[in-house]
Design a protein that fits this description.
heterodimer, A: 271 residues, mainly alpha, 2 domains, 12 helices, 0% strand, B: 278 residues
């Protein structure tokens, strides 16, 4: 029942079935429009004769899964992403918490945390190739560096903004430092940490993609390189679609995990 | 160790701490404490780097001096200044195009419900998706040209700017909109005087984040698509395994993106004087 003074936000939350169908039609319609536009370009051969039809891309994907070990390459990529991400979690969360709790530690570490953020990664990969080779190690290293920043910053934010009141209560009950950490700071932190993890996994995938296309010798990047050396755009696009698919689904999955775990945050937001 | 001596140690420590705190209170040291500690941390880091580099071969792990020397060599032999100017020109062209597209489209998406519903999933997917994955496609279609490089920079930052602008419109306080409505303000007036001022800090945040992405996009395009300018220099040094030349450019780019981000921050503070009142 929509009354006149209901805000648009509320209205959006209480969409009727009709509205939702309408939305879906609009969104799907735009998707079909994009595909049609692409097909038109492919048919006309503009701006390049090499633009493949959608059917050719699907075929290229099938060929690669059947013959060229696409799934194996995807598996290797996922492996590197998770190792890098895991290491970033191991280092990043404690570091963020320490920085949030102590001002001196924050001041000591923040030049480095910020430096990690502003490094132009595309530029440093050639140096990292010399240090780590072109295999799994460089992938893990870049995924680590990419995932590290949001994880540190979010756990830092959470620890720093722990309500003074809570800390004072702990102090007045003479709680030890460890007890305060475990029972006051950490529970308050968890939504922040999880938000950091979600951003971190997204950035880890980006890091992996960057390595794949710059190194371009092994793995998914190697596949792209092979196809583009043969000027077969359909193959290139099919691998790129796989990469972009990873980039969209992994953060989405992490978001699902987040929604499952942090059911109490919904109450806090006032819904 | 008994509990007794542990408490003694503890109280001595506490006393020492408070006495140090009192002594430096209000002094020059305390006022600049943040900067001093950060400087100290950076110095320690650089020293460790340099000491470690001494035990390593130069091509693999160059010391600070060598990195600086590479910069001088690049200045003399590789036309560093020209490369830098050209790189920046590419970057700014792509960045400005992204602002010209991203801000209006973000506003439009925030204001028009229909456009929002239609574009939202696609814009969000592109925002999350790794843009760099698409670079090989553009190489094959467009070839190694200036236009393709500008387009890559554009793609790298446009979604960041768009999403932030959109966020700003969407978070306009309900109360403000209702006031505008109850005074019978026209749609244009509401957008111009209510939504846009609220959106401006979000837009500048997008501009700031987009800047970092633009630097990354520019250098990626130069390393992968057309070996020119700064990316070309990086390529040529990396190909002969001289890491020092890569690191010198990396450090330069870091400095550039810090300066540019700070500049946008300053601009933000100049334009937005009403946030402080809130």
């Amino acid at each position: 029942m929509a009354t006149a003074d209901e805000s648009p936000l509320r209205q959006r939350l209480t969409l009727s079935m009709d509205d939702r169908n309408h939305q879906l039609i609009l969104q799907a319609g735009f998707g079909v429009f994009l595909l049609a536009l692409y097909s038109a370009f492919a048919y006309l051969g503009y701006p390049s004769e090499r633009i493949p039809s959608i059917l050719m891309i699907v075929e290229a994907l099938q060929v690669q899964i059947a013959e060229e070990g696409l799934l194996g390459a995807v598996w290797d990529a996922l492996y590197a992403i998770f190792i890098g991400f895991f290491l970033a979690t191991l280092v990043g969360i404690p570091m963020g918490i320490l920085m949030g709790v102590s001002r001196t530690i924050e001041e000591l570490l923040d030049p480095y945390v910020n430096a990690i953020y502003v490094v132009p990664y595309a530029a440093i990969v050639p140096a990292l190739i010399v240090w780590f080779g072109t295999g799994i190690r460089i992938r893990v290293a870049i995924c680590f560096l990419f995932a590290f920043f949001p994880i540190v910053i979010n756990s830092f934010e959470g620890a720093r903004t722990t309500p003074e009141g809570l800390l004072e209560v702990a102090e007045s009950f003479n709680a030890s430092w460890l007890f305060t950490m475990k029972n006051v700071v950490l529970p308050y932190e968890i939504p922040y940490i999880l938000a950091g993890l979600r951003m971190g996994i997204g950035r880890a995938v980006r890091g992996l993609v960057l390595v794949e296309i710059i190194v371009a010798v092994t793995g998914l990047g190697g596949l792209i390189q092979n196809w583009s050396a043969a000027f077969r755009l359909e193959g290139v696009i099919s691998v790129v679609l796989v990469l972009m698919f990873l980039g969209v689904t992994l953060p989405w999955l992490m978001g699902k995990v987040y929604d499952r775990l942090i059911w109490w945050d919904v109450e806090r937001a006032g819904f | 160790m008994s509990t007794q001596s542990l408490t003694t140690v503890r109280s001595t420590w506490e006393r020492a701490r408070t006495s140090v705190k009192e002594r430096i209170a209000g002094t020059w040291f305390e006022r600049n404490r943040g900067i001093l500690i950060r400087l100290f941390a950076v110095l320690v880091g650089l020293t460790i780097w340099d000491l470690y580099a001494r035990g390593q071969p130069d091509y693999l792990f160059p010391g600070l001096e060598l990195i600086f020397e590479s910069l001088v060599t690049q200045y003399r032999e590789d036309d560093l200044v020209g490369a830098f100017t050209n790189s920046m020109a590419t970057m700014f062209l792509g960045y400005i195009l992204a602002v010209l597209v991203g801000v209006p489209l973000g506003l439009a998406m925030g204001i028009s419900r229909k456009l929002d519903v239609m574009l939202n999933p696609y814009v969000n997917a592109m925002y999350v998706a790794p843009i760099s994955a698409m670079v090989p496609i553009f190489i094959l279609i467009g070839g190694p040209t200036f236009e393709v490089r500008v387009f890559i920079v554009f793609l790298f930052c446009v979604f960041e700017i768009l999403i932030d602008t959109y966020e700003g419109v969407k978070t306009t306080p309900e109360g403000l909109l209702q006031v505008a409505e109850s005074f019978g303000a026209s749609k244009y007036y509401t957008v111009r005087h209510v939504i846009f001022p609220h959106d401006l800090p979000y837009i500048t945040a997008g501009l700031r984040l987009g800047m970092g992405r633009a630097v990354n996009g520019m250098i990626l395009a130069e390393i992968l698509i057309e070996f020119v300018n700064l990316g070309g220099i990086i390529r040529s040094w990396a190909d002969v395994f001289r890491v020092s030349g890569v690191l010198s450019i990396v450090l330069m780019l870091m400095l550039v993106s810090i300066i540019l981000t700070r500049a946008i921050q300053l601009l933000e503070r100049l334009i937005i004087d009403w946030e402080a009142e809130k």
